[in-house]
Amino acid sequence: MSKIKPQTLKGFRDFLPETMLAREHLMQTARDVYRSFGFAPIDTPALEYTEILLGKGGEESDKQMFRFTDQGNRDVSMRFDLTVPFARFAAQHLNELGTPFKRYHLGTVWRAEKPQKGRYREFVQCDFDTIGTKSNAADIETLMVIHELMDRIGCGEFQIRVNNRKVLNGLLQKLELTEQSVSVLRALDKLPKIGRDAVLAEMEGQSISSTQAIQVLDFAELTGTPAELLTQVEQMVSGNETGETGIAQLRELFEVANSVGLPESRLNLDLSIARGLDYYTGTIYETFLDELPGIGSVCSGGRYDNLAELFTSQPLPGVGASLGLDRLLAAMEELGKLKPSSTPSQILVTVFDPAWTADSFRIAQQLRHSGLAVEVYTDHKKMGKQFQYADKKGIPVVLIAGEDERSAGTWQVKELSSGDQTPILEADLADHLLEMVGKTD
RNA sequence: GUGGCCAUAGUUCAGUUGGUUAGAACGCCGGAUUGUGAUUCCGGAGGUCGCCGGUUCAAGUCCGGUUGGCCACCCCA
Fold it and tell me: What is the DSSP string of A372-384?
């Protein structure tokens, strides 16, 4: 009989334990950080009416949606980010939620785009947002969350680049480029990638005069410390109310970040970042890894004026960001920052003689109740094989009890990395092991 | 969506101008005076060369299609 060929769809992947342990660890870190700032978890369906998801991110995202007709003849689509479903969610549950409302949402999203490294058709986003407030304090807190998250994840040094759409818009107003703002910002976003000349060319192709384009670029290419930049830019937008507001917000943001102790090296004012999506209206954030900038932003976000305008007349301003879990994971894998363990077990209890299996199960259960992750070897094989198994899986400690230990009421505790082993009284075992390996994650 | 590169054991790769039973390393499994692994020694199992079709006496090798991966554009996490 011919077999079905085992295969996965383009851009969709299986995860082996080694990768999955890292994924779950990352997700747990994100949850811990979000919760420590008071964000509450929510979830929404993977599938929504297409009309709900359409029309927010523009034509490009519409094309990227997995869309089909269900068995009840409904036009449905897989969610392609967590923001649009959240907008629907917020509009629908506003009265129960109250504002300001802070939520986090870890969820899988689907995009039918062409896959590349760090870009998949199915991937997990870790979003957090604060809605129902225009306060700059929420913007500042968003920055702090991003920093805390990246710091805790531990994938090397990183840089959070901040900008403010109001500053850009203020400048564009002064240059009378408001009409073309979308194309100007799109072009500007590419500056680090394609360089000044190419951006100039692109802008001139968009009915923007070269004088205007040069002024925009001169602005975007200003360099210096955040404080210096702000002073320079303030002069460029002076007299424009929008621009001045943006400057004030950024100034406060950097001041607070400073007094809270965020390292200056990790925080930058980058006037060239504009974010592709047009719905951002205030502060915007992008996060790059120092060791792997090419993989793109791993955590991005910004402030928007009205999250749910498609669904309700109640205005819902907010600010938030999204951690790209799978992209980050791809980066960590490339940088060799993943732990090689392929099991959550911390301890392997060997079975010296099949007749004594019950003893191994008994001590394992006792240790689990102390918060350890414990596995009992299930095959009747000799000691060497049992150690080999532990070593291969990355289990750091094994327990052995033969005749001598049984009569003495002890277990041999063997640390595989060093080969050292010591007999420990059964009563002291849990404390001893906890000190060695710590509690389960 | 447009353009380009790639596809051989679990993994990383060899494979000579198309020419007999397709190789290596690592990994995996088993064994080396049965209370000790990761180092050493010996042995073994894995591939219809991604898939389908074509050219040819002969295809892993050439051609077309298809699936998947990667890169650029686009866009984005």
Answer: --EEE--S---HH
Main-chain phi, psi angles of A69, to 5 degrees: -105, 130
- Distance of A403 CA from B61 C1′ (whole Å): 63
DSSP assignment of A203-224 equals HHTTT--HHHHHHHHHHHT--S
How much is the pLDDT for A64? 83
Can you give the distance from the CA of residue A149 to the C1' of nucleotide B61 in angstroms?
52
* Residue A433: CB less than 7 A from any atom in strand B: no
Multiple choice CATH, A17-334, 3.30.70.260, 3.30.70.20, 3.30.930.10, 2.170.270.10: 3.30.930.10
- Give the Å distances, CA to CA, from A122 to A5, A76, A113: 21, 17, 10
The nt closest to A298 (CA vs C1′) is B77
Residues 6+ positions from A405 with CB-CB distance below 8 Å: A411, A412, A423
- Helical spans, DSSP H, in A309-394: 325-334, 357-368, 383-393
Residue A429 and residue A413: Cα distance in Å, rounded? 9
The CATH 3.30.930.10 domain(s) of chain A lie at 17-334
A265-299: burial string, b at 16+ Cβ within 10 Å, e else:
ebbbbbbbbbbebebbbbbbbbbbbeebeebbbbb
Secondary structure of residue A147 in the 3-state scheme = helix
A378 CA, B8 C1': Å apart: 38
> How many CB atoms lie under 10 A from the CB of residue A377?
21
Instruction: Find where tokens 């732990």 sit.
Output: A339
**Topology annotation, domain A347-437:** Rossmann fold (3.40.50)
Rounded to two decimals, the ipTM of the complex is 0.84
Q: What is the DSSP letter of A67?
A: E
Is the Cβ atom of A297 within 7 Å of strand B at any atom?
yes
Query: Residues A393, A345: contact at Cβ < 8 Å?
Result: yes
Q: pLDDT of A395-437, one tens digit each? A: 999 999 999 999 999 999 999 988 899 999 999 999 999 999 8
Q: What's the pLDDT score for residue A1?
A: 46
